[in-house]
Each structure stands twice: as C-alpha cells, then as structure tokens.
Amino acid sequence: MFKTSRWKRLSATTILIAALLPTTSAWAQSVTVAPGDTLGIIAYHNQITVEQLKLANNLTSDMILVGQSLYIPPRSRVYTVKSGDVLWKIAAKYGVSIQSIVNINQLPSTDDLLIGQKLLIPSEATAGTNEQTKPVAKQDKPWVENINYQVAAADTPWTISIAHGIPMTEFLQVNGLSETDYLQVGQTVKIPVHHIPETAVTGAAYGEYLDWFDAAQYLFPINAVATVTDFATKKSFRVKRTIGASHSDTEPLTAADTAIIKDIWGGSFSWSVRPVIVEVKGRRIAASMTSMPHSIEYITDNNFSGHFDIHFLGSLRHKDNLIDPDHQEAIKIAAGKK
Questions:
Q1: In this structure, how many other beta carbons lie within 10 angstroms of the beta carbon of residue 218?
Q2: Mean pLDDT over all residues of the chain?
Q3: Which member of 74, 109, 141, 320 lies 3.0 to 4.6 Å from 126 by CB, making a disulfide possible if both were Cys?
C-alpha cells in the first residue's frame, strides 16, 4: 500500500482560464465518461495530455462523473499568455490561423486575453483540416513514453499518480523525487504513459496472459471499475480496485455484487483460489481471486468488511513479497495455459 501522510499540499491562487467548454466545431469529438474512467485513462486513449483535456473542458480538478461528456481536442500544445500577447502574434509564432485558436478554445472574443491564461494551440497538421487524432502505431510489447505535466494547486505525487493510473513510486522515481520533496505550483514533472498492446488469447473463454507489473496494473489502475467473471460458473460481478501495489486489493462495488461473490464461493467467504477473468477498458485479463474480506476498506455500503485479493501473472503476496503458486496456477487456467 502507498502512504501519503508525508506529502505536503501547497496552496496557491488558481489561474483563471477564459476558454469556455467547446460545443461544436468541424473536428469536434467527445467521449462519455464510463465507470472506472479517470482523466489519465481518457487522455491516454485519445493521445492527449491530462492538462490538454482539462483545459479543453474548463476543468479545475481531476474529478469527473460517470455519464459526463468530455470534449477531446485535436493535436495541440499548451501556451501561457504573457504580457503584450495578442492572438495574431501567437498564431504567427506557431504558424496557425487566428480562427483555429479561437475554435479550439471556443473564445468568445479575439480581443481579450488574460496574462497567465492558458490556450490550446493546434498543431499545424490539424489547424486547417478536419484530421482527427491518430492512434500510436501498435508494437509487440508494452512500451512507455513520458509526457510533461504542470503541477496545479493542491496536487501531490499521490493525486497526480492516481489521476494518471500509475504507481506513486514510479512517479517519484521517474522525476527523481523522494517522499519528503515538495511540489510547486507550475512545476513541470514527467508522467509515464504505458502503452499495452493486445495479445493473442487461447479462445473466446480465456483472458490475456498479462504480467502485473508490466501491463495489468496499468489497465486496471487504482479507482478503476471492472467486471469479474468466475471462470467455472460464468457468474459475473462488478468490483473496484481501491488500493494495492503488488497485486490488486479490490472491493465489491455494491451489496448485490457481494452477494454474487458469496454465492460463487459456496455461501461463505474463503481464502480458496478461483480462476477469474477481469474485464476492464475493453480488455479481458486472466486472473485469480480469493473472496475473504480483510484489512482496509474504502466502500462502506457493500456489505463487505474489507477488501479481497485479485492476482495476475507475476503479482506478489503482501506478506512476504513472493509469488503465490496457487494463484499462478489458477491464472494459467483462466488464460488457457493448462
């Protein structure tokens, strides 16, 4: 588990953003927030940064709601308005039209810019066309790219990591930080973005055989909601990953989901291992689960006092940081490897 008590929050005046929420344009694209979505996940799938997504939707926090519609801007960069700036100078500097800046930011006027205001500047490739953002070409193995993120008021390594679906330890490492370091508003930090290509499965009943540390933890990050299907009975229930680093510490989403889990395990919760398929963000991943409630809980109205464990290929036990052979055998069954 991660500890956040030592992280210090910094207070600052929030920068006013004049750009309004875009509603229509020739290249407008929107997505509807689904259960388990975070700004980091949505930004990753649409090949933009969290900062660009927040600017395009006039968001001042990382909170989003299921069913909420978010505007996805075309390829762009973020520009901070300085003293003496006018739109024509900014447009000329980046080789785009004034109208393209007005469109992407839905500016009510071309006259009034605020010092410190942030604008999305479309790339030259999209400024004069209807071209949509193109996905990154697929590769055979998981790969990582670092994007820049500007620290906002109240950001901590923990909140930034959660918003982008990565472990806090990874965020600290890639930025050369320790738990005693401060983050400053406006500071630029690196965010690792993990690209996980789809892998072949044995058949329709089986899941992808994905390593926890290289792939599965990024597809099923903390706060993500997934559907779990018991491999033997085919009964399904919904869960939320609420914590966990070496494997997924998971909780039933509702009391109804708890009842299904209890029924699958024969009427009582148990440490016995069962092969399962975890469905999240359109992927089906081979996994293994026990149903015994233990330790910390975050969901308090699901009739489940604590959390349960879901293991994936290569994940580790908390008690000794070793691989659990029973879980790994069950994962092979869910992947069709035995």
A1: 26
A2: 84
A3: 74
Q: pTM to 2 decimals?
A: 0.62
As given in the structure block, the two tokens for residue 248 are: 């997924």
With the C-alpha atoms ordered 254, 259, 265, 268, is the resulting torsion angle positive or negative?
Answer: positive
Angle (nearest 5°) at CA 228 between 277 and 161:
95
Q: 39 near 62, Cβ under 8 Å?
A: yes
Half-sphere exposure of 192 (CA within 13 A, CB side): 21
Looking at the fold, whether 119 and 39 belong to one and the same domain comes out as: yes
Say which amino acid occupies 314.
G
Domain membership of residue 170 as a residue range: 152-195
CA dihedral 80, 85, 89, 90 (to 10 degrees): 10
Tens-digit pLDDT profile for residues 321-338: 999 999 999 999 999 998
Do 191 and 261 belong together in one domain? no
Structure tokens at 96: 């785009």
What pLDDT is stored for residue 139 in this prediction?
A: 56
Q: Is residue 170 over pLDDT 70?
A: yes
Integer Cα distance of 156 and 168 in angstroms: 10
Instruction: Give the number of other CB atoms < 10 A from CB of residue 256.
Output: 12
Nearest to 46 by CA among 152, 222, 193: 193
Is position 141 within any domain? no
